[in-house]
Specification:
GO terms for molecular function: N-acetyltransferase activity. This is N-acetyltransferase 9 isoform X1. Pfam families: Acetyltransf_3. InterPro entries: Acyl_CoA_acyltransferase, GNAT_dom, NAT9-like. There is one protein chain. With 195 residues, the protein is an alpha+beta fold. The protein has eight helices and nine strands. It has helices at 24-30, 34-40, 47-59, 71-77, 80-83, 116-132, 146-154, 177-184; strands at 7-10, 14-18, 63-70, 84-94, 99-106, 136-142, 158-163, 168-174, 190-193. A nine-stranded mixed sheet has the order 7-8-6-5-4-3-2-1-9, with helices on both faces. Strand 7 (158-163) and strand 8 (168-174) form a beta hairpin. Helix 1 (24-30) packs across helix 3 (47-59). The longest helix has 17 residues, at 116-132. 29% of the residues are buried.
Length: 195
């Protein structure tokens, strides 16, 4: 999405940066994992296809993605690729009603269970509310991905539908002022220019 092309979001323990070409090789390595393919309902892509996909994420007005960096690791080594732990996305699936599908993936096993995914998804929700103007969020999650389902339920998402055929559940949250304020109460939200 052109909107976030030069945007960096700083949190307490994570930094969100736009998905750029130099992130592709590590991202591609992650997505060769059968476990991540299953959890994210993704198909494996060739490296060339992954570069093309990155380009669409950067240019399409209905897709917003950020790479999640471990902030403390990045502050020590200033190496984005070494500090990458996952990604978070919003797809605008209904422009008329501003419905956005949100996704989060913590690909690095060492970063799982550290609350970095929790922080990153809240930062992304706030970005979606404030800058993309999302009015309703949906999260489509594999039925087997109990950790993600629980995380979104803790964020007040409610089950909207369940597909036994696709083995996924769709959770939904309508944006309101009280919920936005509760999200803002969790983590500091600071924007910087990304170069």
């Amino acid at each position: 999405m052109r909107l976030n092309f030069n945007t960096k979001i700083l949190g307490k323990n994570t930094i969100l940066v736009p998905y750029r070409e130099h992130h592709v090789p590590k991202y591609h390595t992650w997505m060769r994992s059968e476990e991540l393919q299953k959890l994210t309902a993704s198909e494996p892509l060739t490296l060339e296809e992954e570069y093309k996909m990155q380009k669409t994420w950067q240019e399409d007005d209905d897709k917003c993605t950020f790479i999640i960096l471990d902030k403390h690791k990045y502050e020590q080594n200033c190496d984005e690729n070494d500090s990458m732990i996952g990604d978070t996305n919003i797809f605008v699936i209904d422009n008329d009603n501003m419905v956005g599908e949100i996704e989060i993936m913590i690909a690095e096993e060492t970063a799982r269970g550290s609350k970095k995914g929790w922080e990153a998804v809240i930062l992304m929700l706030l970005y979606g509310i404030k800058f993309i103007k999302i009015k309703t969020f949906e999260a489509k999650i594999s039925i087997e991905n109990i950790i993600s389902i629980n995380m979104f339920q803790k964020l007040n998402f409610k089950e909207k539908s369940r597909s036994e055929i696709f083995q996924e559940v769709t959770l939904e949250k309508v944006v309101d002022n009280n919920w936005t304020k509760s999200l803002e109460g969790h983590f500091e939200f600071q924007l910087q220019t990304y170069k």
